[in-house]
Amino acid sequence: RATQERCVSAIASAAMAAKGQFARYFEQVYGLMRVLLQQTGDKELVLRARAMECVGIMCLAVGRDGCSHIVQECTSFAFQGLQLQLPELREYTYGFFAQLAEVLGAELAPLLPTLLPFALKSLDDNDTMFWDGAAETGASAVAKLFEGKAAAGGSDDDDDVDDDDDDDDSPLTVRTAMLDEKAAAAHCIGACAQHLKAAFLPYIQQVLPSLLAANDYFHEDVRVATTKALTSLVTAISATEPVPKWSKGVVTDLPQQQPMTWALLQRVCGPLQQRFEEDEDKDVVATASESIAQIALLIGPSAMAAVPPASAPLDLRVLVDIAVSLLEQRHACQSSAEADGQVDEDADHDEALWEAVVELLTTAPKALGVHWRPHFERLLPPLMPYLRDGHPAADHSLAIGIIAESINQLESTGSDFCTSLLPIMVRRSRSESVACRQNATFGMGVLSLHGRDAAMANMQSVLQALQARMSADEETIVRDNAVGALSRLVLGFGAELPLDSILPAIVASLPLKEDKDENIPAIRCLMKATHDERSRGHMAALVAPTLSVLARLLRAQLLGDEAAHEAHAFLAWLASQGAQQLEALVKSLPPDEQEALSAGLNAPSVLV
């Protein structure tokens, strides 16, 4: 039986890796799995659980069209399994429904009235811990458990908790299988909310109390799962109240525009912020940070700054203070916390935690724009130690990424920071770390664009550093950022630069394929250089290849709305300068590029 379980897990792994190519094997494998999904003997239920997991992964691999014919039968087996008294079977069944939600989306909605009561019962169940009252009182049992952990050095390792199941001397027992079931139930609810979106609206108030209650559960896996699920509820409810896309730095009256979303944010954001501030587990803190960043990106600046007299759902000042405590290694989740806030260069740096913090601290400026400045001023001093030579390259990359994105969004409002920061970017662009070179190269571009005086003082070293990053043996993503940085220099300084060598290098590198967002400053700089009489002569021989690049970017929809409008206006301007010459240039291009440019010429433009 153990061999069978391993074989089923291996098939699931193969399906996950093969994705759509698994379709040719789907029917044959499902024929085997459906036999296992009907087993009811006690000894076969774990194998049935593995089969349930495998079928969910198979459906995810082949997609809706490849599995729709077996969904009704599978869900029937799944609901039957939820009624059996095996936590592991329920755990994997919740996983199956989470995967099915991703495959079917809103089509899963008819199953929710049957599915959610099972998931909520698992989430609300308090039977994960019990003690033998005849041997010892509950309070003394818990006290003895934590005394034992303290004597062992205070380890939080999951294995220490799991071992309680086999500790014959302790009256306290933790049913780890039920913990996994509880976390899986929360994940299932979150997946349904995330993928069903507006179709999940009737169930939000039904699941919210249980998710909030479990978000303070003693085990970190459950807290992680419920934190993600609460964020998915926000995704679902916001889909029912569509509003125009938010603009950077523009705070709207969210209680009036999205009253249901606002009401949910008032209930969800406080607990998420509390997890971020107080939790002692790094994974939970990282998940809370990611969740807050997702909400900020979804809702925009109104999530962190409200129209008076309303208060924002997220307190940005508190969030920045929490981030500072993490940077200074004095957060509750950091074993290396120092009371004096001194950064230990040799401290354990949890990669997932730092990535989550970076995501939050680079998302907030995207939403707030110039309103981010006072918070950046608060962050910069604790970030600077991470740029010291004694720190690992990962620390350099972390700090540079936050600094560069902050200046990118602050624009000219952050120009006074550039004098001290630009030389650091130049130096770190020579790092052995690809990520550090990439971030520093991006940073050179944005600091040069928005810090004119600082850029002029360092122009020679900046150009030399970017030339090195443009070399053929450099990593593609770093080269893409070097092209973006050169393009920002052209946008900022134009004819003051040696354009005879810079512009051909930019055109020859386009379109960028690794960091596709850098295509936008690149095409903008080429359009500006063509417009500007002082640089137009350098573009004469480059107009045709520029049009080819522009066509490919428009066709692939890589420019976004704003830059696409600018491109349409540019094409209209070219036509006004010489319609016959433009027509000849367009006809020299491949048919698909001609089509894209013709569509661009006929599209309405709002920018001139």
What features would you describe in this structure?
This protein has about 600 residues and is an all-alpha fold. Helices cover about 70% and strands about 0% of the residues. The chain has 30 helices and two strands. It has helices at about 1-20, 25-35, 45-65, 70-80, 85-105, 110-125, 140-150, 160, 175-195, 205-215, 220-240, 255, 260-280, 280-300, 315-325, 350-370, 375-385, 395-410, 420-430, 435-450, 450-455, 460-470, 475-495, 500-510, 520-530, 535-540, 545-555, 560-575, 580-585, 590-600; strands spanning about 130, 170-175. It has a two-stranded antiparallel ribbon. Helix 10 (about 205-215) runs antiparallel to helix 11 (about 220-240). The termini are far apart. About 45% of the residues are buried. Residues about 150-165 have low confidence and may be disordered.
Topology:
Layout (H helix, E strand, L loop, with lengths): L1 H17 L4 H14 L8 H23 L3 H12 L4 H18 L7 H13 L4 E3 L6 H14 L6 H5 L9 E3 L1 H21 L7 H11 L5 H19 L15 H4 L1 H20 L3 H18 L16 H12 L23 H18 L4 H11 L9 H18 L7 H11 L5 H17 L1 H6 L1 H11 L6 H18 L5 H11 L9 H13 L4 H4 L3 H13 L4 H18 L1 H9 L3 H12 L6
